């Protein structure tokens, strides 16, 4: 794909104009970047996380989860959560096989979130709330937390459901599921 951008820019420079070639090259590169970033974002459930760590012989970070409470599901998002990956996020979460009482979304590896992803989170929260499921966000970094605060999901989810680490999130899940 990079070669296509290179060749397109080259031929536009030769046959048309350098300025036009740079503009088109930048646009094509931007689309290529967005495609790669959306492919880099992964969303895994707890079963996949445990299987992945066991298969490669590594122990999970911070002596990982001793247990996940009954009626609680855990998903982890790795990578930026922006409009390119927002559809993947929505697809994975809408295909939940069972409706748990609590859904923990672990976001420790999410460097940023955009408005499209926040709207998806709001919509998803409303769907789950109507079926009796609560959402807890875990490991949200300060920049993402600030964006959530500015855009509304912070107040919708509630301050007590956006937590710093997975251990606090599991304790909160136990409280909510009682």
From TrEMBL:
InterPro entries: SLC26A/SulP_fam (IPR001902), STAS_dom (IPR002645), STAS_dom_sf (IPR036513). It comes from the Bacteria. Residues 71-173 form the STAS domain. This is STAS domain-containing protein. The lineage of its organism: Bacteria, Pseudomonadati, Bacteroidota, Flavobacteriia, Flavobacteriales.
């Amino acid at each position: 794909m990079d070669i296509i951008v290179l060749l397109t820019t080259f031929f536009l420079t030769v046959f048309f104009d350098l300025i036009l070639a740079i503009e088109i090259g930048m646009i094509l590169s931007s689309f290529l970047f967005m495609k790669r970033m959306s492919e880099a974002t992964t969303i895994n459930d707890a079963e996949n996380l445990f299987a992945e760590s066991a298969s490669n012989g590594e122990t999970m970070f911070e002596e990982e989860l001793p247990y996940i409470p009954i009626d609680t599901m855990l998903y982890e998002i790795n990578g930026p959560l922006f409009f390119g990956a927002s559809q993947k996020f929505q697809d994975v979460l809408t295909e939940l096989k069972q409706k748990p009482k609590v859904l923990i979304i672990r976001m420790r590896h999410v460097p940023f979130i955009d408005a499209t992803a926040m709207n998806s989170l709001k919509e998803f929260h409303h769907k789950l709330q109507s079926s009796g499921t609560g959402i807890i966000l875990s490991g949200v970094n300060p920049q993402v937390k600030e964006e959530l605060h500015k855009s509304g999901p912070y107040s919708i989810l509630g301050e007590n459901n956006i937590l710093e680490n997975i251990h606090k999130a599991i304790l909160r899940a136990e409280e909510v599921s009682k």
